[in-house]
Amino acid sequence: MNLPSQPPLEPQAVLDALERARSAQLPEPALRELLDQAAQALAACLRDQEESGLRWRALFDAMPDPVSILSEDGTVLALNKAGVEAYQRVHGDIVGKNIRVLNPDLPRDHMVPVWETLNRGESYVIEVTNMRGDGTRFPVEVHSANYRFDGHKSLVAVARDLSRRREAETRYRELMEALDCGVIVHNRERQILYANGAALRIFGVSARMSLSEELVHERWRVVDEDGRELEEHDMPPQRALAEGRIQESRLIGLYHRQRKELIWLSITSVPQFAPGQDRPSQVTSIFSDVTHLKRESALFDRTQALAQIGGWEWDTGRDLVYVTAEAQRILGAARAPERIADMLACLEEPDRRRFRDVTARLMREGGGFDTELQGRRHDGQPFWVRVIGELEASDPASARVIGTLQDISLDKRSEEALRVQARTDPLTGLMNRDAVLTELGRRLSDAAHGQLALLYIDLDRFKAVNDVLGHNTGDQLLMEAAHRILDAVGPSGQVARFGGDEFLVLCEDGGDPRVAECMADAILHAFEPAFRFGQEEFNIGASIGIARAPQDGARPQQLIQNADVAMYDVKHRTRNAWQDFTPELAQKQQDRVLMETQLRRAVDNEEFHLVYQPQVDLRRGQIIAAEALIRWSNHQLGEQRPDLFIGHAETTGDIVRIGRWVLREACRQVRQWRDEGLGVIRVAVNVSYRQFADDLARHVRELLEEFDLPGSALELEFTERVLIEDAPATLRTFAELRALGVLLSIDDFGEGYSALNYLRRLPIHGLKISQLFTEGVPGNRSDVAVCQAVSAIARSLGLGLVAEGIESESQRQFLLQLGVPVGQGFLFAPGLPPDEFASRLRGAQRPQAVQA
Predict the structure, then answer these.
(1) Are 154 and 147 in contact (CB under 8 A)?
(2) Strands 623-634 and 683-687
(3) Are 116 and 110 in contact (CB under 8 A)?
């Protein structure tokens, strides 16, 4: 059977023809022709499939929004170009990975609700926050739908970036809140969708109420501009919804039934249509409070009352006075005055006399006057009034004075409030710096009050609270401290906040030093109870310096400076105490300034050197490391104790430059010892928290490279202050140092505000028990308890432990039994010059060399 020649068949048609041919048992030529047609159809199908795939990919990549195809378990099967650009990642970092690579916050079973929705034949829509390759986040709205990909059940997800829309919404809301006009949006069901702050203010809605509750019909009576009551369907918003047209500048009055208050609004209502709708779905109403304009246009006498201006006239010939009703109200007279004496009866005596003087001069010279007078109404309320008058002398025998009275009490109270505000610290309500300087200057210039004492108060450990709990808690602490100082001082002194956490107290002591001293004791006693903030508790003390006038200073700045000198001394000696100013303290301040000056030049003048105190294995007595200790010898000041000049360097910021010198010198010395055949000795160096801002990790890396040392040759010791410097840069610096192999430890652990959650996050190697605690063991129970606690913390966190300040065999035995493996102190050696330390190393006690 011969089949006619014809174009290639569709694949299914070819299969059907082959089946018929098999059933009919066609001869070989016919069957060969049919197979040729099948081959042509298959090739055409493959070409169509390839072209279809190219068209699909082109369409897929042409989508402007990120589009991804996900498997049932959330694996990304495909991602278009817009997605690669939006997520700022390479294609291979996303495709083949779970969708959580773009949104790590998704829960483990996040695909369950998606498939529940898609299986119902619906689209799944959700707003989430996706993550770019650099870790930044951006909001997206994701639409998901069913899709078959390579024959498998999948879903296609389109993510629309909402960042610009969110920004636009924010700007729109900021604009709405900045308007003086009220704005309300509600839907056809009269539900309020939005109201700005001005709307809430106009309707008198408090923070405890909602506008929806306040605007119920039962609370208000609505009238038009002629006072006729409006039905609800006649109100501008309802008419805009019903007619679909703007209702412009309608004047309506709203009377609040409970408050018995009438407000007038000029309102414009604009209908808004949803896409594809021919009826408005909501309406926006914009309105202004024009109550005062309505009243002014209605009644002139009400204008007088609103402006609080009244009129008066005095017939001097017959001594008769006429006043308007508003003038009578301003003066607070029980009845209208008839004589000038009646009108003046409400004025204070000095101002009553002043009014007579200006009117007498007016009668002699003519013209007018404008003066301000103070009085008291018949109910006892004080008032201020501005009186303007001029002479009308048409009849010489009966001259008239006419004028106005204006109530300016509010202005005067505002002036007084501004005056007080200018002199008041806004946080604590105390006198501010300018006010106390003015008051102190006034008192010092007054010979009758020349003998006074000034207390300069600085809070101890305030910065720790500020750093740990934040500035809001710091402000609460300052307010509480102000209350405690006020209660302690009572009426005997004046308290001011001088700045930051510093306060001043002025008191007249009459030359008796015990007055200021008793006041200082009372303030210290007031600070004994701990300050509580939530679950946190802090013991905050006060350092107080006392200076007395005139012997310690006859000028405000001089007296304050000397009280500051006394405060500085007590703060650096003991804290939580008071100290009188003495000339010796002034000399100490001069010495401090001299020290700071010399300290600034010490590195350039090569005045520093290092000594090395051995760190010893407490069990075997073997030297295993050393701590580098700085010494300073100045040609003018002589040998200076480190505990003195290090504190100054921290205060002035010179510690950064000095710390760089110490690190370099310690690395140089370790290199020299290594070249002398002593191996690589680990040296511990104290590092200030201020050095973190000096790119500490880079500096250490450069030094290790310069002297060809392993990171393990260096141990950096930080004070506990770094525990509260929880900035990302601080944590990054710790991580970089640890990556160099440098050992990290916390020095003098337990002296400051240790917080275990900070300690747990920092990649440190060990803790160092302060000499402050080791010197009391084993006899002092408190020191024993602290050492036991620090040891337990170190063990629980897997940290090394070193004890410093060991001076006796009993201390060594106690610490050894406690599990402290390493110690240093005078029992073994003081700080040694480099050559002497090297000699000890060459002796019987060889150090454990650091592995390079």
Answers:
(1) yes
(2) parallel
(3) no
Alpha carbons 100 and 316: distance in angstroms, whole number: 94
Portion of the chain with pLDDT greater than 90, in percent: 26
Secondary structure letter of residue 543 according to DSSP: E
Q: How many helices (H) and strands (E) does the chain have?
A: 29, 32
* Residue from 110, 109, 128, 125 nearest 157 by CA: 125
Confidence (pLDDT) at 45: 61
Give the three-class secondary structure for 67: strand
**Single-letter amino acid, residue 433:** R
β-strand partners of 256: 220, 261
| pLDDT of res. 7 | 47
The pLDDT of residue 299:
44
Superfamily of domain 425-581: Reverse transcriptase/Diguanylate cyclase domain (3.30.70.270)
Domains 311-409 and 425-581 share a fold: no
- Burial class from Cβ neighbours inside 10 Å (0-12, 13-18, 19+) for residue 630 reads buried
DSSP string, 256-303: ETTTTEEEEEEEEEEEEE-TT-SSEEEEEEEEEE-HHHHHHHH-HHHH
In this prediction, residues 654-679 reach a mean pLDDT of 94
Q: Are 399 and 316 in contact (CB under 8 A)?
A: yes
Choices 3.30.420.10, 3.40.50.10490, 3.30.450.20, 2.40.37.10: CATH for 63-161: 3.30.450.20
Is pLDDT of 5 > 50? no
pTM for this one?
0.43
Report pLDDT for 850. Answer: 41
User: Which has the higher per-residue pLDDT, 709 or 841?
Assistant: 709
The CA-CA-CA angle for residues 220, 221, 224, to 5°, reads: 130
Domains of the chain, by residue range, sit at: 11-59, 63-161, 166-297, 311-409, 425-581, 597-842
pLDDT for the residue numbered 845: 45
* Residue 391 to residue 393: CA distance in whole angstroms: 6
CA distance 57 to 260: 70
Per-residue model confidence (pLDDT) at position 470 = 81
Contact 289, 263 (CB under 8 A): yes
Quote the CA–CA distance of 627 and 462 in Å, as a whole number: 32
CB burial of residue 596 (10 Å; 0-12, 13-18, 19+): middle
Which pair of structure tokens corresponds to residue 143? 């639409």
More confident residue, 171 or 745: 745
CATH architecture designation of domain 311-409: 2-Layer Sandwich (3.30)
CB atoms within 10 A of CB 631: 16
Q: Kind of pairing, strands 608-617 and 623-634?
A: antiparallel
- In terms of average pLDDT, the best of 168-182, 298-312, 530-544, 826-840 is 826-840
Provide the 8-state DSSP code for 752: S
Question: What superfamily does domain 597-842 belong to in CATH?
Answer: EAL domain (3.20.20.450)
| 8 A C-beta contact, residue 567 and residue 505 | no
755-792: pLDDT as tens digits:
566 677 778 899 999 998 999 999 999 899 999 999 99
- Residue whose C-alpha is closest to residue 241's, from 191, 178, 289: 191
CA dihedral 367, 369, 370, 374 (to 10 degrees): -170
Residue 448 pLDDT greater than 70, yes or no: no
Cβ 678 vs Cβ 625: under 8 Å: no
Phi, psi for 275 (deg, rounded to 5): -55, 130
Q: Which helix (H) or strand (E) holds 497?
A: strand 493-499
Please tell me the number of Cα atoms within 13 Å of 843 on its side-chain side: 10
Q: Is the domain covering 166-297 a CATH 3.30.450.20 domain?
A: yes
Residue with tokens 């500051």: 564
- For residue 172, the surrounding DSSP H or E stretch is helix 163-178
Which residue has 């290199």 as its token pair?
671
SS3 607: coil
Which 3-state string (H, E, C) describes 639-705? EECHHHHHHHHHHHCCHHHHHHHHHHHHHHHHHHHHHCCCCCCCEEEEECHHHHHHCHHHHHHHHHH
